[in-house]
Amino acid sequence: MKKLTTSRFALALAAPLFAAFFSLSISSLAVLATHKSPSAAFSLMWEYGTRAGSLMAAANLATSYYIAAIAIALTFRAGLFNIGVEGQLRLGALFAGFLGSKFSLPPVFHVIAVMLIAMLVGGSWAAIAAYMKVKRGVSEVISTIMLNAMAGGLSAYLLSKHFAMKQATGYNLETKPLPKSAQFPNLMPVLRKLGIQNQPGAGVYGMAVVAIAMGFAFWFLVNRTRFGFELRASGVNPMAARVSGVNAKRMTIIALVGSGAIAGLAGLPTLMGETYSYNLGFRGGIGFSAIAIALLGRNSALGMGISACLFGFLEVASQTLDLINIAPETYVIMQGSILLSAVVAYEVVRRYQLTLHSEALAKVGE
Amino acid sequence: MAYAVELRNISKRFPGVVANRDVSMKVRGGSVHALVGENGAGKSTVMKILYGMQQPDSGEILIDDQQVAFRKPADAIAAGVGMVHQHFMLADNFTVLENVILGYEPTKRGVINVAEARKKILEMSAAYGLDVNPDALVEDLGVGQRQRVEILKVLYRGARILIFDEPTAVLVPQEVDELFGALHGLREDGLTVIFISHKLDEVLRVADDVTVVRAGSTVAEVKASDVTAKQLAELMVGSELPSPEIHGTPRRELITLSLKNVTVPSPSGARDLISDVSFELHAGEVVGIAGVEGNGQSELIEAILGLRKYRGEVLFKGESLDRFSVAHRRDLGIGFIPEDRQRQALLMASPLWENRILGHQRGKPVMNGYVIDKKSTMTDTISIMEEFDVRAPGPDTLALALSGGNQQKFIVGREMRGDPSLLLASHPARGVDVGAQADIWNELRRAREKGMAIVMISADLEELIGMSDRLLVMLRGKITATLDPKTTTPESLGSAMTGAA
User: Fold this and answer.
1) What integer pLDDT is reported at residue B360 of this predicted model?
2) Of the candidates B330, B317, B334, B335, which has an alpha carbon nearest to the alpha carbon of residue B252?
3) In what order do the strands lie in the sheet with B161-165?
4) Which end of chain A is more exposed for a tag (fewer CB within 10 A), N or C?
5) What is this model's ipTM?
């Protein structure tokens, strides 16, 4: 048994190592294709990416990615697929920004209230898909994709016509900034005490702590609770789950609405930590990158944490590639090839493990 | 007399366990030879060795009196040994022809010579009565036809010795007949068939010779014409055969289950799946529901468990269940052994300890409030494995790695642990070997004596008659007869089931 554990550990490392190697090769080819030196590109990225300021920016980006990935993983684990995280987080942030500036509360309560608004809006948007799935059997994959398109249009309309501040020169439409009491405190004051210098940029969002706490909560909920067990059972064998007493419709609703509520929070790190208002420059695509992050992290709390940080790092570090005339979008190739190779590597390792497993059993059984 | 296959004193040890010690068998050329034994007796290991998937530690393999050593299946195929696997290995989106030639494509200047392949396949189909349209897509074929494609695949690769691993496990009776027809065709053409099974009546129907293995050793080599199924079974288990029977009348006054005019409408609006079924079941009583498959027995069980909508009333210990969810019903003390264990009762890719939780996730010992109590679940899983003789390395073993019989024993153990007052058992001993069957029957008997009420469905009429206090015959969704098992024979029950009586 001891030996099995060691090899299991080695196997767990095999897949990510293979994925890293494979994706480095692919990205090198991509850089070579533009007649540039891959080693120069990578060393420049590493040099820039590991600067304190870049790491902070990467962490901030990873915070949003991670929360959105948790939202997606919750549905993956239930055998569902919420592609609508993008729309849910956008609407969540829009309403949180708009409504959050309309009232005042003591500091901590105001922050919580804004978060609740975002969750409520995100959850309600996802509830449309959940309702259609349960009542009419509409695939949530299709409905959430369509809801994304609607969320994009709806948010643009609401912002320009109703939510934006009246300005004399309105090039950048934005909601009224959140009052101080609704802003999430930055982590810089704490980090300074630990001897870390201020850097240009937005510091480190306080929401990072919330994201980490959500990671723990997600792990515990899915792996250690009755609800999590029923969720996973519904995901891997809906029929057996039903026979065991799980109400399939209820599980679908909880998973999708819960996912939407979590997704609603994913837009808040920037809103409550940097811009304080929802504006036209609201970052798009988080909800889509998060799908890749959840896949790469295999829907596990730790795995998604690592993938979110990796995606954040690559995205920030690649900005410097411009300096040597390489398109910064090279990071998209890197992310894509990591994902592709990881999915393949995991599957290979899974099959190999299964073989080991049956061999171990053959020794006892037959 | 030359033997097509001869195994001499084959031994295979895995660390800590001996899978085979001293297995010998002699297979005459042009015969159908059955290899029988309980789950875990070592049948599969012997065949894996013969097919080159594993290497023996000692012993000799002779093919046509020539000693051989197979390192891999390709060696075995080259020597004319082919294997028809229990689980088909076919590409669904390919045609029959494409599947058959896959990997052995005849080519003409680098292009697949389809015409030649088709000719060869048609010849083989005709010669052995393996009637399959070479241009049909495999995904459109039924199970029996897919098996024929597998056989064609093996023949196409030039096999003269065909190993069939539990070929009838997936077939309906009619397809079994067709398969046996094909096996006789192969035999007449001088091919040799080795047939692994634990269904003894089938073995006796199709085989010329039988080799019995028990606990990794050959215990008997007999002619099929010289033995009865009962004798074979006793050779397999090494002791007198268990029989399904119950004694005494532990029936109590308490009425555990009562159905009043239960009707299950068909979802498509056609004829009701069950109409107007009423009966009462006392604590300590077993009622057997007899019927040809598809006459409403499964739907009846599903209605009692709350998996199907019904009209009428279901009372459990006098309390109406009609408005209760599946979870609520199970928690009141209704255990369930479903007919399709892999689809309905197991999370195949999860470890056994997680499977222990399934269906019991709302209480002790697997939960502590709303949180999984892993330690206590592990302990309980281990004790189920010991008590019910579930053969697996440990509670971390994935359910999919267990043999069917062990999966079933685990499920029975799990449901018994919940100490239900009512057990709904669909084919509780289906697909398990005689030893496990005896264990399961013992458990049911013991539970009955302690006052458990049991609703049982089984396709095995002897089991149904032997284990029931009362038999209800279902035909087209209605209960058409109530029989006393003491005065019922399988033949009379069979005719009652088909409505002939």
Assistant:
1) 92
2) B317
3) B81-84, B161-165, B192-197, B32-36, B209-214, B217-223
4) N
5) 0.84
The residue to which tokens 């080159």 are assigned: B52
pLDDT band at B1 (very low <50, low <70, confident <90, very high): low
Query: Number of helices (H) and strands (E), helices first, in chain B?
Result: 17, 24
Question: Angle at Cα A353 formed by Cα A352 and Cα A354, nearest 5°?
Answer: 90
Residue window 302-331, chain B: list those with CB within 8 Å of chain A.
305, 307, 325-331
What is the model's pTM?
0.76
* Residue bearing tokens 């549905």: A75
The structural domains of chain B, with segments of one domain joined by +, span 3-237, 255-497
C-alpha to C-alpha distance for B479 and B472, rounded to whole angstroms: 6
Nearest to A240 among B39, B347, B398 (CB): B347
Orientation of helix A38-49 relative to helix A52-77, angle to 10°? 90
Task: Please list the residues that pair with B108 across neighbouring strands.
Answer: B111
**Mean of pLDDT values over B78-89:** 85
Quick one: A213 exposed, middle or buried, by C-beta within 10 A (0-12, 13-18, 19+)?
Answer: exposed
- Residue B49's CB is within 10 A of a number of other CB atoms, namely 25
Find chain B residues with C-beta within 8 A of A254's C-beta: none
- What's the CA gap between A267 and A210, in Å, rounded? 13
Residues of A with CB under 8 A from a CB of B: 1, 223-227, 229-230, 232-233, 236-237, 239-247, 354, 357-358, 360-366
Are A75 and A255 a contacting pair, CB within 8 Å? yes
**DSSP line for A141-196:** HHHHHHHHHHHHHHHHHHIIIIIBPP-SS-SS-BBPPPPGGGSPPPSHHHHHHTTP
Q: What is the pLDDT of residues B350-363, one digit of tens each?
A: 999 999 999 999 98
Portion 350-389 of B in contact with A at CB < 8 A: 350, 354, 357-362, 367, 370-372, 374
Of A354, A141, A14, the residue nearest B398 (C-alpha): A354
Q: How many Cβ atoms are within 10 Å of A268's Cβ, its own excluded?
A: 28
How far apart CA B201 and CA B181 sit, in angstroms, is 16
Mean pLDDT score of chain A, rounded to an integer?
89
CATH annotation of B3-237: 3.40.50.300
**Binning pLDDT at 50, 70 and 90, where does residue B16 land?**
very low
Backbone angles phi, psi at B476, to 5 degrees: 45, 45
CA of residue B484 relative to chain centroid, distance: 28
Tell me how close the Cα of B328 comes to any Cα of chain A, in angstroms: 8
Residues near A347 by beta carbon (within 8 Å), at least 6 away in sequence: none
Residues of B in contact with A240 (CB under 8 A): 343-347, 358
Are the CB atoms for B377 and A336 separated by under 8 Å? no
- The CA distance from A257 to A82, in Å, is 10
Model confidence over B251-305: pLDDT tens digits?
788 889 999 999 999 877 778 889 999 999 999 999 999 988 778 888 999 999 9
Q: Which residues pair with B257 in a beta bridge?
A: B281, B316
What residues have CB less than 8 Å from B442, skipping those under 6 apart?
B242
Q: Which residue has the tokens 């206090």?
A: B469
Minimal Cα–Cα distance from A232 to chain B, Å? 10
What pLDDT is attached to residue B237? 73
Query: How many Å apart are CA A86 and CA A126, to the nearest integer?
Result: 11
Determine the average pLDDT of the residues in B100-125. 85
For domain B255-497, the CATH architecture is 3-Layer(aba) Sandwich (3.40)
Element (H, E) at A364: helix A330-365
Contact list, B307 vs chain A (CB under 8 Å) = 242-243
Sequence-distant (≥ 6) Cβ neighbours of residue B439 within 8 angstroms? B388, B389, B409
Rg (C-alpha) for chain B, rounded Å, is 25
Q: How many inter-chain contacts (A to B, CB under 8 Å) are there?
A: 114
